[in-house]
């Protein structure tokens, strides 16, 4: 017996492993582990069609005809259906959940360009966390890059729109005035601060060169023309109402 044991230990490790796999004990252990794994299942919490009562579904037991995706769990990589037809009529779509995370990721990307340094840093951590989650859910790096670029492009468009709106309000304030000296000064200070914040964000978006003196002047001229057109329209409306009033009085 001792000689047999010594001979076995002297054999290559791979051969020893193959011999162990052939034993009844090994098969019994594997069957027990498989049974425990199947008993645990992969449970997904959801709500009924009315959105009131919670219920759970073991998606590991669903039909193999479903479209599957891979999700990382404590048990390792597990295949789960992309769309599950629930008994109560609800459709649980994993893709919808991924898209929600994508939206949160894009929102975090946009917030990283905020003029508020603290908000920008917190958003940076959120962005990294959402990117990690999406990667674990199988979203490829190329798609993440596209999402990030779209978020940046949308933020740039919003930044430009905010600048034009702020300059519009600034020009309108200069034309109308209407407040006391102190009040007017305070309103100007608010608009100036908003413009500083917009430019700070533009720097973080790498478009600070867009707001040249010439560009600012161009926007001011355009919004001034828009204001003039609004006044002209209002003048025509007042004249129409005045003429109508005169005609009815006669």
In short:
With 250 residues, the protein is mainly alpha-helical. The protein has helices at residues 2-10, 13-21, 24-40, 94-111, 117-136, 141-176, 181-204, 213-249; strands at 43-47, 54-58, 68-73, 76-81, 83-85, 91-93. It folds into three domains: 1-40, no CATH class; 42-89, no CATH class; 99-249, no CATH class.
Number of domains: 3
- Tell me about the largest β-sheet: 2 strands, antiparallel
Count of distinct strands:
6
Q: What is the string of helix and strand elements?
A: HHHEEEEEEHHHHH
Helix content: 55-70%
List low-pLDDT spans.
Answer: 1-9, 62-67, 81-92
Continuous helix count? 8
Overall geometry: elongated
Strand order of the largest sheet: 1-2
Q: Mean pLDDT, rounded to whole units?
A: 75
How much β-strand is present in the residues?
A: 5-15%
Helical/strand content category: mainly alpha
Rg for CA atoms:
33 Å
Our measurement of the CA-to-CA distance between the termini, rounded to an integer number of angstroms, reads 129 Å
List the helices and strands and how they pair.
Elements: H1 2-10, H2 13-21, H3 24-40, E1 43-47, E2 54-58, E3 68-73, E4 76-81, E5 83-85, E6 91-93, H4 94-111, H5 117-136, H6 141-176, H7 181-204, H8 213-249
How does this model look, in words?
This protein has 250 residues and is mainly alpha-helical. It folds into three domains: 1-40, no CATH class; 42-89, no CATH class; 99-249, no CATH class. The chain is 68% helix and 11% strand. The chain has a two-stranded antiparallel ribbon with strand order 1-2. Helix 4 (94-111) runs antiparallel to helix 5 (117-136), helix 4 (94-111) packs across helix 6 (141-176) and helix 6 crosses helix 8 (213-249). The longest helix is centred in the C-terminal third of the chain and has 37 residues, at 213-249. It starts with a helix and ends with a helix.
